[in-house]
Structures are given as C-alpha cells and as structure tokens.
Design goal:
The structure holds 2 protein chains of 2 kinds. By secondary structure, chain A is mainly beta. Helices cover 0% and strands 60% of the residues of chain A. The chains are: A mainly beta, B mainly beta.
Chain lengths: 112, 113
Amino acid sequence: KQEVTQIPAALSVPEGENLVLNCSFTDSAIYNLQWFRQDPGKGLTSLLLIQSSQREQTSGRLNASLDKSSGRSTLYIAASQPGDSATYLCAVCGRGAQKLVFGQGTRLTINP
Amino acid sequence: GAGVSQTPSNKVTEKGKYVELRCDPISGHTALYWYRQSLGQGPEFLIYFQGTGAADDSGLPNDRFFAVRPEGSVSTLKIQRTERGDSAVYLCASSLGLFNEQFFGPGTRLTVL
C-alpha cells in the first residue's frame, strides 16, 4: 500500500528566503507525482505535475524534482513571498491505479 | 474556461439523513474523481469514473456511500443514513483522461450534527 509522507508538517520563514518542501513515498512504481497548494477553506490548486520519466519540472519560482528510485520529491520555492503562505500537498499516482495518494501536507507561513 | 464546480459549498444535516453532493467537471474531461478530506489531513480517494462507469470504487468506506455519473459529465455523491463521522470536506476532481493532471473543485463541507 502506497504511503506518502511530507516533512516538515509546518514551516515558517521570513520573506525572501528560498525554501524546500519534502515528500517521500514508499512504492516507487508510480506514474506521476503532483504538487498542490491549498489555501484555508479552499480546494486544491495544481502547481506542478512530474511524469515518472522526468527528473524535474519548473513553473515560475517553483521547481519540483523527482527521484523515483529513492521515493522522494522536493518542491523548491525561490524568493518566497507572503502570498506563498498556504498548505502544500504532494500526491502520487500509482501505476495501474488512477487515484492520487496524498501526503498530509506542509503548512507554510511566509513572514513579511 | 470554467473549472470544476461543486454544489452546495456547505451542507449541514442531521444524523440519519440522506444527502447528495454534486460535481460539474471541466468540459471535455472524461475522468472524474471524488476524495474526502478530514481536518488537518490530506484528501483520501473515494471513487473514480471513466465516462459513465465507476472504474474504481475501492475507497468508498461502506455501502452507505454511492456515486453516479449517468451521462458521463455531472456526478452526484450520495450518502445514506449520515453519521457524525461522515463530516468532512468532499472534493471532486476531473482530468482529460487516464493518468492526466487532476484539477480540483472548491469542495463541499459536510457537517453532520
């Protein structure tokens, strides 16, 4: 059974810092991995999708990497801003299964 | 273009009542998913449709939960004899097809008193 873990559970940093959020998964037989952002009381916003054959994806100040063999992904946020404050969730889609398995999320606070 | 929409945004009901939650996927998306999110947790998979048929309902917790997608577009999640433990945010997502990026709606917050 696939399990996804995100560390840390919460992170608070000053504005302008670069930061890394971590995601690990137990079964490396995945089809893809998605990073999402969730604001309080809202749904999920897709940030980046990495296919299993890819090593990384970039969108603006965000860069996500994938090391499938070690079961790890990182989300790098450059030059953080207060508007980046949210909960960040990673989710993996296993081969043969359409469903996403989510981690519990990292609650990020960027202090002005 | 319009994203995934869900109605109602909030639903308060009493224990034992029946509820229906509706999801309108992005136009043209053939795959539709339901997830449930409890406070402080990541979403958990309930059921997935490809077209009109439920391709995987392994996440439905028991037979009080049922979902339909009769015309391959709008889906309804139905919960019978609601229990307080059913209280959660129910999220719907859609994607263009197999293994594509999933796009989520704003969710329905269900509270069972």
